[in-house]
Write a structure and sequence with these properties.
Oligomer: single chain
CATH superfamily of the largest domain: Fumarylacetoacetase-like, C-terminal domain
Strand content: 35-45%
Radius of gyration: 17 Å
Number of helices: 4
Number of domains: 2
Helix content: 10-25%
Order of helices and strands: EEEEEEHEEEEEEEHHEEEHEEEE
Amino acid sequence: MRIARFSIDGNVAFGAVEGDSPDSLVLDIIKGIPFADFELSGTKVPLDKVRLLPPVLPNKVVAIGRNYAEHAKEMGGAVPDVPVTFFKPSTSVIGPGDPIAYPSFTEELHHEAELAVVIGRMCREVPRERARDVILGYTCANDVTARDVQRREDQWARAKGFDSSCPLGPWIETDVEPDDLTIQCTVNGAQRQLGRTSDMVRSVEELIVHITEAMTLLPGDVILTGTPAGVGPLTVGDEVAVSIEGIGTLTNKVIKRG
């Protein structure tokens, strides 16, 4: 099931995305929220009549650095012995079609296409064999990074946590297997990144175990699983798209921060 969060006529709701052709997609409005038992209302609206929002509003986004060997190499380092973990605040989250605002404090903004894991229920100290049980589904993410700031500052809070640095969307896919999916990024239609999730050093299950050893994850929290090689610059006016096999495409445009 593809679960989208959207607004229409000033109201916000979740809906199940139905259809195969981009021109004929409709939303069957969900009664309730997708983090508990819910029913489909049978009330359907065309997707092109609504505004898609970030598919979740996470309490926290837990991100993983250097989880693809080739990306670690292009950044001038080896794969770390333990996962590099950092946070992106909820205020960094935007949805499909929302603008990425180029911050005034950086001159080197980069895209990072990533598979995002959406947590479905509260969990702590999750054993590997139960890791899939706590997942609602998966979505596309762009870990937008102020690369020059990341190099200057030991902590990455400003480099990766600024407003609009975490595009998510277009929806949550609950029925995809995450182990070997094509992930790519294009800028103005030109391919920049192309990889497969099978190239991740540490699997989705391993990351959930590692993170929940330290903290409780809540329904709607998001894990960013790292980016393949090919990260590169964004400029004002660029249109950046992250596509993941079996999930969809997340598109955002870069604007000057006002």
